[in-house]
Amino acid sequence: MIFTTCPPAEAIGGLLAHAITLNGRRIAKATPVTPILAAAAAHLPSLTIVRLDPHDVAEDAAAAALADALTGPDLRAAPPLHGRVNLHATRAGLFLATDVTAVNAVDESLTLATLPPFMPVAADQVVATIKIIPFAVAAATLAAATLAATPLALAPWRGGTAHLIHTTPMPAKVIAKTSAVTGARVAALGMTLTQGPPIPHDGVSLADALAAAPPSALILVAGATATADRADVIPAAILAVGGTLIRVGMPADPGNLLVLGQLGSTPVIGLPGCARSPKRNGLDLVLERLAAGLAVTSADIAAMGAGGLLDEAAAALPWGWR
């Protein structure tokens, strides 16, 4: 690619390097210089243009090619414009992204920006943008970037039901609020909520309720007291009915006291106290993955610590520091 400044008549066949104004009309950069445009610009001393080399790929074609390599399941690429292609979700679900840096490390001329991994998105939401910085890139550079690209994807919400178990003693108004908040939380993830009558907060009663729970995508337990140990009521009840414990506690605040277990193929979550609030908390980090059909391991939860300070992450930026 060659940048050059020349008289308008000699610029024919090139692309405008910068926007210009002719007869009160703005002509965008990258516009091809045709004989008509050159004649209209004849009064100008010169034009700065770009001429592509034979091995160059124009910005729109390059952006579209890289988008093809990055568009995974349940995503769609918009048409290229000015060297940019946006990727959109085709369904509501959880955005999945890996190895974004691998593309950006190939060359500064090609860029990929995405939403954070595991972010819930709505249908048609933009999840990523590919931008070619110059007017063209070398074909070899584009080939290297497409080779480095790992397709982005979306894990759509699977639907189904979540069954909520309350333990007591707990005021009726707190139980009602927990039911309402939890119902809204799972509805946002494409699920419906079922629940039975409250039961005493003891291992036997909870074990019986777990064993009798209707078939569902997952089971949620809103305990009368917080879980403090693997021997506490909720973890012990999961084990008592033949379940397994995946994690007791998580590196997220609010949400530290979450319990995750499994009963057969059904995940069981002991809710942290903050789950009674609609504010984002550690429960959401786990629940969203499960609602999208993703397994959640102890290692997955351990990795949630970076970014797990949720209240502070949502706070306004301290611009006064500048």
Automatic annotation (TrEMBL):
- Highest taxon above the source species: Bacteria
Query: What name goes with this protein?
Result: Molybdopterin-binding protein
